[in-house]
Amino acid sequence: MNGDLKEVWNKVLEDLQNELSKLSFETWIRRLEPISMDDDSIYIEVKDNMHLNKALEYKMLIQTAFNIHLKREYEIEFIIKGNSIPIKEKEVKDTLKSKQVNLNPNYTFDNFIVGSSNEMAYAACLNLAQHANMPNSENILTNPIFLYGGSGLGKTHLINAIGNYIIQNHPNLKVLYISTEDFVNEFINTIRNNDYSNFRQKFRNVDILLVDDIQFIESKEQMQIEFFHTFETLYTNNSKIIITCDKSPQNLKTLESRLITRFSWGLTVDIQSPDYETRLAILRSKNYLNKLNIDDDILVYIAHNISNNVRELEGAYKTVTAYASMNKNFNLESAKKALKDKFSPNNIRKLSPEFIIEIVSSYYSITKEDIMSNKRKRQFALPRQIVMFLCRQDINLTYQEIGKIFDKDHSTVMHSCSKIETEMNENSKLNLEIQEIRKRISS
Ligand code: ADP
Ligand code: MG
Fold first, then answer.
1. Which ligand is nearest to the CA of 283?
2. What is the pLDDT of residue 173?
């Protein structure tokens, strides 16, 4: 039995021992032997037909115990000794290892579709994964990688792909994936229990630290200091650090400047909304991998109509597959009906001033109330003016209509719009910011 599988099995045995009578446990369970697992199933060997029948009675119990320890759904398959199944040892090991370091084994470079929107991000991540065993000074790769972009565009997928690649190809390196939310929660517990050494031991003792959604440490000062020291220690030790975020380092408004500087030491790379070709390629690849035969014209229809992000693309695809599985004659027309609700509200939402306010306020990390207020500080006035400018330019509202939304007169709105227009030409940072906001609105 593979070592990792054995470890889980021992835990399962402990659980079952508590649940069953000593006699049943010793007679029927103790002698079972898990021999292998793949993505979906765990294979357990039984001695003969009689043991198989008895084992089947306990199947759900065993399955539940496994799933609790592995935090995923597996099917238990019993095999009578001698009737072997192909054992994919390496796969087994990697899947289990992924779980131990928090990685999602389903996110790999192999199943990530590359297009112009994400090729830089993909190349940077793959390069770092390939050279993860080299000292920082000696290789051409850049460390840290700061990967940013809107929601649902593949950041979590890529950062997991780095981890999964490394545990397969550089098995002696220690990888740790953590969402910033969990990092923050663990830190809060650490403060509560006054037990810093465990926390530091865990995070400062790795070769590769993958930190997802760093925007969660905005406005958490103490956390930022702790993260700064973690970063320094890891960097000095040649460890690699990969960070994802929903905005660029410069736009992390309440972040300590020394952290922003550190993040910018390496490679900052963004990931944008996929173009039509990439969207279609993603859908086709999912269809192929799932061995489902959704007609290509349906995939084309989805790719045409959903441009926001890949998560939404997947959502539409899942809806279609659910309907298709219930209806033998499922075709493009049925797909249109099934997706009716998914497409239209989205489009309405995209075109509204409310949506622009939402995007701009989240981009600048201020509240919608701040945007709607009369506060004159540039921190609030600029985003407000940008909203007005975009309402005018991108959704063709009149100055009067915009004025009504903000309770301002027509000339104030006009002044704001022309101010932004002029400033965009002179200030390249602002220009870039507006480009990025537009991408989020239209994607
Ligand atoms: P983010 O972390 O940026 O919000 P995720 O990485 O969670 O986004 O991606 C959302 C979903 O879309 C995931 O299921 C992911 O596998 C899928 N996805 C995103 N980009 C791609 C891609 N280029 N190829 C294949 N699947 C992708
Ligand atoms: Mg994510």
1. 1
2. 92
